[in-house]
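thread: overnight batch results

M.L. [08:02]
morning all. the overnight job finished for the chain we discussed friday. pasting input first so we're all looking at the same thing
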Amino acid sequence: MGKHLETCKNCEQQFSDAFNFCPHCGQQAKDDLTVKVLFYNTISNYFSFDARFFKSFFPLLLKPGFIARKFVEGKRLQYLHPAQMYLFVAVVFFFLFSFIQREQVRAIDDSLAAAFEKEKNINLKFNKIQLDSIKSIELIQQAIKDSLNKVEVKKLLEDKQIFTGMSDAKIDSLVNTDDFGKNASRDFGFNTKTIDSLLALGTPKDIIYKAMGMEDDAGAIKKRMYRQALKFYESKRGGNIIQTFYDTIPLAMFFLLPIFALILKAFHFKKGRYAHHLVFSFYYFSFLFTVFSLILAINFIVDLPDWLDFLIMLSTFLYLVIALRCFYVQGWFKSFFKGVITSFVFLSVVTPIAFVLISIFAFLFY
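M.L. [08:03]
and the structure it wrote out:
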């Protein structure tokens, strides 16, 4: 009896009807579209992921470096792929962290709103200060620093000259000092009173940027800095900058993690390819995000003491030392020494640079 051939609906290759699955692409041979077939792959993939996840999750927590070593040795179907593990745990962490983000963004916006409201209600300080009671030049200098109008300050000082005993030369030196009116900028780097006037008049932004101090030949980045600074000043809200900063961190981790693996490669140059160190880094960062997630979850329920949070964070370094010893098959001293140097370089050099870059990015694109 001749063999009957089936044609795969997916790859259109022919095969014997004795096969339940196409030997060329693996699709089920007879897969009439029913509700069962529609959801079969989704459910089966989900439980496959779930089983491998739990087979990987507990060894990840309890056996530092074990899964990474087994994965490099070739046992790759038994455990969840390191990148997949990292993505799953990172998503959970940033989801939990988003609740804290919202609180911080709201708190920053509220604080700035209160500060600017206070600034708005500060008129000429000399209208509220009785210069008769001023006994020292220091208080006068402070009053001048808090003032916004040089001409009015000078007039008031001249009116009260009989009480202060200051000469005309002294008044001129105080009022005309180089740092007079710096308080008007409130650390913005420009005179806010001037900018407020220009904004009220509907002045074109290009002119306002020049009033803020932008040169005519400023580059694209510098122009954007002034544009964002004015945007911040107009909105009086800093929460969006913080939100953009937090939103950038997951993306930044895809650059930081390979750098961590590169540091490991530098200290274990003869211990396998760079991909091996990358596997170790994926699993280690998965452990870190798991610990951070647990800390966040527990603190939502009960506020842990600071000393306990510190001990938990310290445990991540001890985990690293044990993981290095297991994965690279080396002594305790080497593992501890390399763990210290790796952590120091990553936390003291790489992370601060990343923090600055993320902060600049957040300000430029919030």
